[in-house]
């Protein structure tokens, strides 16, 4: 049985990552990339689907974990009657994307502790047992394209297609265990020096964290929470290409036992754009330039063929299939690989993209001619499409509709294009864009606002609400004090809030094409914080923000959703969207606090 989602820690090297449970088991690891087949998939099945545990043999009295400050290096300390042991887990940053290491250093802090190790390597998402042979330093495992060198400083025993060990460690000693992946057609080229790799890895992440501007502001009440979210976002970036994954897992369920299980190990134009804004607002500029290049490569070709999501290197085909041999996280089946949303039309993506590139201009990122030509083409394409029904920001799998939020984001796309011409002197058919912007606005006000309900609604002709409407004031569609904005925020508070947290929409009767319900969606709850800030209800916003912070796990990590009744995290983990929400809300509250003290001071 897998641990609770929030009981996992996340370590990564910007090629891939691993999830480590509180009991010292690595239950998820895809090699060599985030979107490769998993060789440890116990997370979505059983131990037999692959895992690697190192833990005390006797009873564990207490466990505590932390990240080394400013890094993704995880330390888990186990207290036992015999003493205390810490496992230091990390993935060194590799200059060669075809060589990936996962290192676990066992350190005895006190006493003398008996330890056990259990390694079950199962390639192909938990199904393929490798051919294993002993080597001088441990063992080598090969399965088709994959080869793993496993180096251990203790005697190993093989039984039932698993490798085990039992050993003792005394105070002050350190024992390194290294799992190194390389393609089976290449010789092993790994550097064997766990201590040096730890120092290098720590120095790299610390340098990166030192660039963050959040800690420079003494008035910032949540610098650590924001810094951890930023680190998590950075670790979700695929270093060779600059693509940013929405989350590093597949099929962690949106409801325990349910079928709303999706593969998030890809780059959504939406999620990546929003991630980028959070990084830019926190002092990180070079990420924006890299991502712009990724985007230009991924989308290059005819603008009509632009997709809403791509693979890490811009791959277009992300065909969705099910993996029936995996029983699913706590029996939440099916487990899916690939994502059928790849073919959807989601008009909001144009707006999120234009907004991210606009903010890049505001931050005076070096202008790129290719990028502006691309933006002009996007608007040309959008001009022919904005009236079409789409699947919207929530990627519904029911009927396409005229989603109000999609239309608003089409308005945003033209608005940011116009501002590029007006404020930055770029060249474009601005009169035409102005006319379209006006036409879209009139259309939204005529059909997206429901006078009887006294609120904007999810889609034209409907009466239901949508948490994405909380974004209307932030994108500048109407001023925050407009009565329609205030009324919509209040309607969402009445109808979409459950136990203080926000649902995306009411799935009962929303015909999203899916069975069952889901938890409250964390980024939507952060959007409520932002909307409350904008309509001047700062105290309420801060209370909700503090509540959201309290839902993070002990390491500061958030999944996509939260079940307030069971008090546990749900959905893929850790999720970029949720951490983006946290960073932005913290910035918004701080800015509002400063401006209110400026006005009263
Ligand atoms: O609810 C159905 C859809 O759920 C997933 O989409 C969600 O995740 C995306 C990545 O973070 C996000 O961009 C989107 O707004 C969310 O609704 C899933 O990926 C879809 O396939 C599914 O239809």
UniProtKB/TrEMBL annotation:
Cofactor(s) this protein requires: phosphate
An example Gene Ontology biological process: trehalose catabolic process
Q: Which GO terms describe its molecular function?
A: alpha,alpha-trehalase activity
Q: Where is each Trehalase-like N-terminal domain found?
A: 3-153
Q: Keywords, A to Z?
A: Carbohydrate metabolism, Glycosidase, Hydrolase
Which pathway does the UniProt entry assign to this protein? Glycan degradation; trehalose degradation; D-glucose from alpha,alpha-trehalose: step 1/1
Q: Does the keyword Plastid apply?
A: no
In this protein, which residues make up the domain named GH15-like? 224-586
Q: Quick check: keyword Transferase in the entry?
A: no
Q: Which InterPro entries match?
A: 6-hairpin_glycosidase_sf, 6hp_glycosidase-like_sf, GH15-like, Trehalase-like_N
For this protein, what is the EC number?
Answer: 3.2.1.28
Swiss-Prot/TrEMBL catalytic activity: alpha,alpha-trehalose + H2O = alpha-D-glucose + beta-D-glucose
> Matching Pfam families, A to Z?
Glyco_hydro_15, TREH_N
Which family, according to the similarity comment? Belongs to the glycosyl hydrolase 15 family.
Q: Would you tell me the protein name for this molecule?
A: Trehalase
């Amino acid at each position: 049985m897998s641990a609770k989602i929030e009981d996992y820690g996340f370590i990564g090297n910007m090629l891939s990552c691993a999830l480590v449970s509180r009991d010292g088991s690595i239950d998820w690891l895809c090699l060599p990339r985030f979107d490769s087949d998993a060789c440890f998939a116990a997370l979505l099945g059983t131990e037999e689907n692959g895992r690697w545990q190192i833990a005390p043999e006797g009873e564990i009295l207490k466990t505590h974990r932390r990240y080394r400050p400013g890094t993704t290096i995880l330390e888990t300390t186990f207290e036992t009657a015999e003493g205390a042991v810490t496992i230091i887990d990390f993935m060194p940053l590799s200059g060669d994307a075809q060589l990936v290491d996962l290192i676990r250093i066992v350190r005895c802090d006190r006493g003398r502790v008996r330890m056990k190790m259990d390694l079950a390597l199962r390639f192909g998402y938990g199904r393929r047992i490798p051919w294993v042979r002993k080597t001088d330093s441990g063992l080598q495992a090969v399965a088709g394209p994959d080869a793993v060198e496993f180096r251990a400083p203790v005697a190993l025993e093989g039984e039932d297609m698993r490798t085990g060990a039992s050993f003792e460690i005394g105070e002050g000693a350190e024992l390194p265990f290294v799992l190194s992946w390389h393609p089976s057609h290449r010789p092993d080229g790994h550097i064997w020096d766990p201590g040096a790799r730890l120092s290098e890895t720590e120095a790299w992440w610390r340098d990166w964290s030192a660039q963050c501007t959040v800690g420079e502001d003494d008035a910032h009440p949540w610098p650590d929470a924001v810094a951890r979210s930023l680190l998590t976002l950075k670790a979700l970036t695929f270093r060779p290409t600059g693509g940013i994954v929405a989350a590093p897992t597949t099929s962690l369920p949106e409801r325990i036992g349910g079928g709303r299980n999706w593969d998030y190990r890809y780059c959504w134009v939406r999620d990546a754009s929003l991630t980028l804004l959070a990084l830019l607002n926190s002092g990180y500029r070079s990420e924006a330039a890299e991502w712009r290049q990724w985007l230009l490569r991924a989308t290059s070709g005819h603008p009509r063929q632009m997709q809403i999501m791509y693979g890490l290197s811009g791959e277009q085909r992300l065909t969705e299939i099910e993996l029936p041999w995996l029983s699913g996280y706590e029996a939440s089946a099916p487990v899916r690989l690939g994502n059928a949303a790849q073919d959807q039309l989601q008009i909001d993506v144009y707006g999120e993209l234009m907004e991210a590139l606009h903010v890049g201009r505001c931050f005076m990122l070096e202008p790129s001619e290719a990028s502006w030509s691309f933006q002009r083409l996007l608007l040309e394409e959008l001009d022919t499409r904005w009236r079409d029904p789409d699947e919207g920001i929530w990627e519904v799998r029911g009927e396409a509709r005229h989603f109000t939020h999609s239309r608003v984001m089409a308005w945003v796309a033209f608005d940011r294009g116009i501002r590029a011409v007006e404020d930055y002197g770029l060249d474009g058919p601005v009169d035409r864009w102005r006319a379209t912007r006006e036409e879209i606005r009139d259309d939204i006000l005529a059909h997206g606002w429901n006078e009887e309900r006294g609120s904007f609604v999810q889609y034209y002709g409907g009466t239901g609400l949508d948490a994405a409407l909380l974004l209307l004031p932030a994108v500048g569609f109407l001023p925050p004090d407009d009565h329609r904005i205030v009324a919509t925020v209040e309607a969402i508070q009445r109808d979409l809030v459950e136990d203080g947290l926000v649902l995306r929409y009411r799935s009962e009767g929303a015909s999203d094409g899916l069975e069952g319900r889901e938890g409250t969606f964390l980024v939507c709850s952060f959007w409520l914080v932002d909307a409350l800030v904008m309509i001047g209800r700062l105290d309420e916003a801060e209370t909700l923000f503090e509540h959201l912070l309290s839902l993070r796990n002990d390491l500061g990590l958030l999944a996509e959703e939260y079940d307030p009744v069971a008090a546990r995290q749900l959905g893929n983990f850790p999720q970029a969207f949720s951490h983006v929400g946290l960073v932005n809300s913290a910035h918004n509250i701080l800015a509002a606090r400063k401006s209110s003290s400026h006005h009263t001071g």
